Input
Amino acid sequence: MNAPLLKLSAVETRIGAYHILHGVDFEVPRGQLTMLLGRNGAGKTTTLRTIMGLWKPSAGSVQFDGREIGGMATPEIARLGIAYVPESMGIFADLSVRDNMVLAARGARGADDIDAARLEWIFNLFPAMKTFWLHPAGKLSGGQKQMLAVSRAIVEPRKLILIDEPSKGLAPAMIANMIAAFRELKNTDTTILLVEQNFNFARQLGDTVAVMDDGRIVHRGAMAELADNQDLQTRLLGLSLAAHQ
Output
């Protein structure tokens, strides 16, 4: 069996006086989409931010591709091939879609420096990015901004993408578009760790799942197993996936 691309072992994170993560343990298999689920306040966003180096672990190990990255600076972690799409999306509202993409492409001085074939692939995933290429990002709809945030993360090949609640606040049609795009992305060599509150979204996309509660991992396994077990859903998440289909 291949070694996992990402492995967290006994990770603890403290933010000021607050002890948020209490010994987090889980793995992200290569080439798969792993869902990180849990109730609000369980520690999911803190986990992503700790992996990305935005918050430093106070204990434990974060290994990426066999290398310890816990405590490394965020730019160093990004250079290893990890991209992060925060819940806030992290786009530059005053800049055009094009300029947002140029800034995300390391070393690019202009749009002509972005790999043309990859850009066309992104346009196929998210046609609105081509339509609004020269428009200010701040003028996009919520769903289009989310598409731009994901497009920025994949403008160059990445080994791992961390995504925080991509469907939050989106209309059903936009969610369906996002699901289709992630399915296409799964067909590449990209590994994804995705935090999500929309359980139907999780059920359709997840290969594996880790469930958090109170800063700890309380369940690990196949997403299909959790999707088929309503008692387990209720115990771990407080409600069943069936209610969100």
Remarks:
- DSSP finds ten helices and ten strands in the chain.
- The first helix runs from residue 44 to 51.
